[in-house]
Automatic annotation (TrEMBL):
The keyword Flavoprotein does not apply. One of its GO terms (biological process) is fatty acid beta-oxidation. This is 3-hydroxybutyryl-CoA dehydratase. Keywords: Lyase. Belongs to the enoyl-CoA hydratase/isomerase family. It comes from the Bacteria. The keyword Lipid metabolism does not apply. GO terms for molecular function: lyase activity.
Length: 274
C-alpha cells in the first residue's frame, strides 16, 4: 500500500474503489472518477486504481473504446493536495506519489484503444494533464480548463508541458501558463484543446464521437496510436523495432483477411483484433 493510501469505505475487508468502471454494449467502457467531495481530485488510491483500470481495459480484447469522466459535474481537479500534504516533506514517499501519477498518465496515453475525455466543470492542473493524455476531449459549456501553476509558485512538469504544446501550440501554451488562467469552453475550442462541444449529456456525446472508432480494426488503432505517440515524443527511432512489428502484425492479421472478404462481399467487416 502506497503513501497516504486512502480508498473508500471497507466492504468485506476490501477498500471500495473511487474509480468506477461501467461496461456499455460490450465494446465500450466508461471510467468515472467518483470523488465529487474533492471535485474529483485524486489521492494516491485513486491514481492507483485509475492506472489499474486503464491497464485492465487495455488488455481486454472486447473493449474497443473508453470514455473517461468525473462524477458530480466536474472532470478532475488534479492531485488532492490535502491528501498529499502528510507526505510532501518526506522525499521518498513524495517521489512514490508523484511517480504513481506519471504511471497513471502513461497508462491512459499508451492504452492501445481510443480514449475520450468527457469534460464538464473543473478540469485543472493534473486534471488538465489527465485530459491531455486522452486521444480526444468532448466538453459541455460548463467546462473550465487551466494549469495555474504560476499562481502556486510551481513549474509545470516538462512532459505535461510537452503535451500541452502539442495540443494547443507553443504560443497558446505560453499564454495559458504565463496568465495562469482558467479558460471556458469557448477558449478551449478556439485553441483546439477540445474536439467537440455539446449542449447535452457529455458522456453520451463522447460515446457518439467515438462510435465509428469502436468499429475500426483494433490492430490498426493500436498501431496508429503507438506511431503517433512515438512521433510526438520524438521516439520513432528508439521504438522503430516495436512499431515495425506492429505494421507486420497487421499485414499478417486475420482482420486484414476479413477486411478483404468483406470488401468482396460488400458487407461491413467484423474485426476481432487478431
Amino acid at each position: 500500500m502506497g503513501p497516504g493510501h486512502q480508498g473508500g469505505q471497507h466492504q468485506g475487508g476490501l477498500m471500495a474503489s473511487e474509480i468506477l468502471v461501467e461496461r456499455g454494449d460490450g465494446a465500450t467502457a466508461v471510467v468515472t472518477i467518483n470523488r465529487p467531495h474533492r471535485r474529483n481530485a485524486c489521492d494516491f488510491a485513486a491514481w492507483t486504481d485509475l492506472k489499474t483500470a486503464f491497464e485492465q481495459l487495455g488488455a481486454d480484447p472486447a473493449v474497443k473504446l473508453v470514455v473517461l469522466t468525473g462524477a458530480g459535474g466536474h472532470f478532475c481537479a488534479g492531485d488532492d493536495i490535502v491528501a498529499f500534504a502528510p507526505v510532501r516533506d518526506n522525499t521518498a514517499q513524495a517521489d512514490v506519489w508523484r511517480a504513481r501519477i506519471q504511471e497513471c498518465y502513461a497508462a491512459v496515453q499508451s492504452m492501445p484503444k481510443p480514449v475520450i475525455a468527457a469534460l464538464q466543470g473543473v478540469c485543472v492542473g493534473g486534471g488538465c494533464s489527465l485530459a491531455m493524455c486522452c486521444d480526444f476531449r468532448v466538453a459541455d459549456g460548463s467546462a473550465r480548463v487551466g494549469v495555474p501553476v504560476a499562481k502556486l509558485g510551481l513549474v509545470y512538469p516538462t512532459i505535461q508541458l510537452q503535451r500541452l504544446a502539442w495540443l494547443i501550440g507553443a504560443s497558446n501554451a505560453r499564454r495559458w501558463l504565463y496568465e495562469a488562467g482558467i479558460y471556458d469552453s469557448d477558449e478551449c475550442e478556439r485553441v483546439g484543446f477540445i474536439d467537440r462541444r455539446t449542449d447535452g449529456n457529455v458522456v453520451a456525446a463522447a460515446l457518439e464521437f467515438g462510435r465509428e472508432m469502436a468499429l475500426a480494426a483494433p490492430l490498426s488503432i493500436a498501431g496508429a496510436k503507438a506511431q503517433l505517440n512515438a512521433v510526438l515524443a520524438g521516439q520513432v527511432e528508439q521504438r522503430r523495432a516495436e512499431l515495425d512489428a506492429m505494421v507486420r502484425r497487421a499485414d499478417e492479421s486475420d482482420d486484414f483477411r476479413e477486411a478483404m472478404r468483406a470488401f468482396r462481399e460488400k458487407r461491413p467487416p467484423r474485426f476481432q483484433g487478431r
